[in-house]
Amino acid sequence: MPRSRRGPLKSAVASIIVSPVRRCSRTACGRPAVATLTYVYADSTAVLGPLATYAEPHCYDLCAEHSERLTAPRGWEVVRLAEASGPARPSGDDLEALANAVREAARPHERTTDAGGRSGADPVEVGRRGHLRVLRSPDS
């Protein structure tokens, strides 16, 4: 590195140290961000939810004060998503429904064929809506 009479030359570009804590996106606010704001222009909706895992260019991180005071333009709706305090855990009803589904899938089904060669236990499609199908068992 070249030396001057005053000592080693310093870089003309200042070093910018990036904080690992994400800050509020509002101008002149340096508080830590706790929520993420996203606009859904097609639905005229502003969605305010828990702080996103990653900073996205089309989202705005807000501190607690600015997220509480958030208002949307006239004609827009603000949707505030509840912050989950921890990972969602299955309830007893969910586990019971899962166990019943596994038992039903493991149960052997009798298949009888009619004169047309069709299986009598196969469901019959009654209707369709998009990718969903309405099925009716031939027994009922």
What does this protein structure show overall?
The chain is an alpha+beta fold. The chain has a domain at 19-80. The chain has two helices and eight strands. It has helices spanning 64-68, 92-106, and strands spanning 3-4, 7-8, 35-40, 45-50, 60-62, 77-80, 124-129, 132-136. A four-stranded mixed beta sheet has the order 5-3-4-6. Strands 1-2 form a two-stranded antiparallel sheet. A hairpin with a 4-residue loop joins strand 3 and strand 4. The chain is elongated and about 95 Å long. The N and C termini lie far apart (89 Å). The model has no long low-confidence stretch (mean pLDDT 77).
Secondary structure blueprint with pairings:
Layout: E1 3-4, E2 7-8, E3 35-40, E4 45-50, E5 60-62, H1 64-68, E6 77-80, H2 92-106, E7 124-129, E8 132-136
What tags apply to this protein structure?
single chain; 140 residues; alpha+beta; four-stranded mixed sheet; two-stranded antiparallel ribbon; 2 helices; 8 strands; 14% helix
Major sheet characteristics: 4 strands, mixed
What fraction, in percent, of the residue positions are helical? 10-25%
Mean pLDDT: 77
Strand content: 15-25%
Q: How large is the count of helical segments?
A: 2
How many β-strand runs? 8
The topology string of helices and strands comes to EEEEEHEHEE
Which regions contain 5 or more consecutive residues with pLDDT less than 50?
none
